[in-house]
Amino acid sequence: MVEEYKExxxxxxxxxxxxxxxxxxEHDQLLFADCxxxxxxxxxxxxxxxxxxxxxxxxxxxxxxxxxRVLIKKNGVEDRLFLHDSNFCxxxxxxxxxxxxxxxxxxxxxxxxxxxxxxxxxxxxxSRGFSFRVDAPLDMRMDYDNDNIQTAKDIINRYSAQDLAxxxxxxxxxxxxxxxxxxxxxxxxxxxxxxxxxxxxDLIKDCYPKKLQFGRIHxxxxxxxxxxxxxxxxxxxxxxxxxxxxPLLKIGGRILIISFHSLEDRIVKKLFxxxxxxxxxxxxxxxxxxxxxxxSDEEIAENSRSRSAKLRxxxxxxxxxxxxxxxxxxxxxx
Length: 334
Description:
This protein has 334 residues and is an alpha/beta fold. It is 44% helix and 14% strand.
């Protein structure tokens, strides 16, 4: 695999820092978590903003971990930034198993950032099979040295036509899901396994009407997205990790989630609404933004991949604000 981790643009970095650090002057110490270290853009920015801040960070990608440990040492933050080799689905176990003293001393976490996007490194490093810009084995595992995780090749060559069609439709919102699934099964039955990104991308393109094969977006884009989500269980872990994070937030603490496609954002939006309405046990929460925060035109100009990003923020509170606009007047009268 690769030796050098590619540079990555940290999406909505200023906005994330501003929300994580809201009310920070009220605290003698700060404890944050970043669920995806990636190239370290968000994580390093968080600890550099204030020397009293400490951060627990996660990544399962061997390249990101190797690069991250170098960056942490280079920036002299070994005593404040703790990087763990783990998927964030193990959030509670990692945090409380390694940093329970920090959490308890701080009264909980001040903020947690969950960036659901795929690092530019994964798309730019062709050997990982995330992109069809270069020919490479169909892999797509974030944790590529974990042989217990099925690869995109496994899925393409083992799933039934019905299962493939469901996958492409549900996770890729692919209009031609059934046509593509049938063609995949026919191709592998006739000519053997489909092994590479070019093989699959060309096959998918041929399933599209001629007039749609050469548009701005490649016909294989949605199916590759669906495969990546399936390989890494990206949607499955969203609900689980939020449920692990919320009880560890201190009063006033926030969870920030950046999503990049409608499937993720719908899940986050629904969950945040449910928590605002019903709470979690005795804990109460409020959405801090009614509409998701999106990148500025300037950011999109600098990094076109950020154009689909949406940031939502949920805050743990002591009590919810009254929605009765006349309440303050009734209190005055009484």
